[in-house]
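During the no-cost extension, the postdoctoral fellow (Dr. R.K.) reprocessed legacy sequence entries with the updated structure-token encoder. One reprocessed record is reproduced below for audit purposes.
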Amino acid sequence: MSEDAFIVSPTKKHTGTIIFLHGLGENGENWKLLLSKMVKPNIKVICLNAKKIPLTLNKGFPTAAWFDLASLDENKLEDETSIMRAVDNLHDIIDEEIATSKVSSTKTMLAGFSQGGALAMYAALTYHKRLAAVLAMSSWPVIRHTLPEAAVNNTNIPMLQCHGTEDPVIYYKWGLILSDVLKEMNPNKYEFKSYEGLMHAVNDQVRKILV
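Re-encoded structure tokens follow.
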């Protein structure tokens, strides 16, 4: 896994894991640098790297992406096959990490930004074991027509969603669509935080709650 991820190794006994997924066109390096300054010494952080794929949104230009994307319009058809392939792959990565580290799924958190957050949330809801928590930042609901039926697990774990009100990439209204879906499924442990004036980014307030 080390070739496909930037890893923050725990400096004390490993008792918890965060698996983090970056946004479109990025890799995990900057997130590793950010999170390494914030996590507790017993936490391992795995900042996964998406492979470059011919991205329809970029006219087929190879772009680091978790799944193919034709448009950022929430009403456009999605490539469900590509999304589900990414979900299954992430499930396999979680399984591998749990088996290797011996740290249970209930001590494992999924988190992500933008496309990574969208994938993290759907993967959490369709994973076969209970997770510790899930965090989605500046994200939207993928294949939402399958929810809530597809949500076979993790509908009552702590969920946090963060979104800037001035996001010009993943519009705030798309974050609200995701929020409506999650509130209905998880009314007791879901929280939505909006950040006035924040664009497609994280700020100091968001950084404080990342871990």
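The beta strands are 5-8, 16-21, 43-48, 52-55, 61-64, 108-113, 133-137, 159-164, 190-195. The longest strand covers residues 16-21. The remaining legacy entries will be reprocessed before the final report is submitted.
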